[in-house]
Structures are given as structure tokens and as C-alpha cells.
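The instructor's notes for this session suggest beginning with a concrete chain rather than abstract definitions. Hand out the sequence below and ask the class to guess, before any prediction is shown, which regions might be ordered.
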Amino acid sequence: MRCVIARFPFDLTKSGVEASMKGVKPEPVEGESVLIGRRRYPVKQVGEVITRQDRRDFSAWEVIRAMTLLGFTCRVAPEETPARELTPLQTASALLGASTPA
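After discussion, reveal the predicted structure:
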């Protein structure tokens, strides 16, 4: 299948991606990931291996789109939960050095 990653067209197949990633040790996953075979790879690592381009040249979404179209399972990074906002009283107490109740 023809996929565009970093403004360059690539003819990718599921078996071709699996063959390219065979023998590649997965890096620790901290964000988006792709399941290839029984291993979970970071999206940027997969993009770098299959395109032979620097990771800064493409976005994770380009690789996720291509891998999803090829039939691979992709996981998006979980959204961070926002920190609980302090009330004005808690903010003032923190600025004065008093302990804030939990």
C-alpha cells in the first residue's frame, strides 16, 4: 500500500513491515506504540526503521495512520490528568509556607 510519511511516498506491506522489524529490539514505550507480532514498539522507532529517515522528519500520527491502514494495532499515549487546582486560600497558605490540607 502506498503511504506518505514525511512528504515521501512509501510502498509498504504488512509482511514487509514485519520483516523490517524482525530482530529489532523494542525501545521502552512511553507514548504512542504499535503492536507488531508479539512486541510493542514505539511509533517513532518503527517509522525510523521502515523509512530509514531521522525521527525528527516525521510525526507519530503519520506512522500511526500508515500502520493502522496496514492492519497493525496502534495505541495512543494516555492523556495526562490535569493537576488539581488550588483554591485561593490554599495558594496563599503555600506562599506563606504553611502546610496545605490534602
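Then share the key points. The radius of gyration is 21 Å. Strands lie at 2-5, 8-11, 33-36, 39-42, 73-75.
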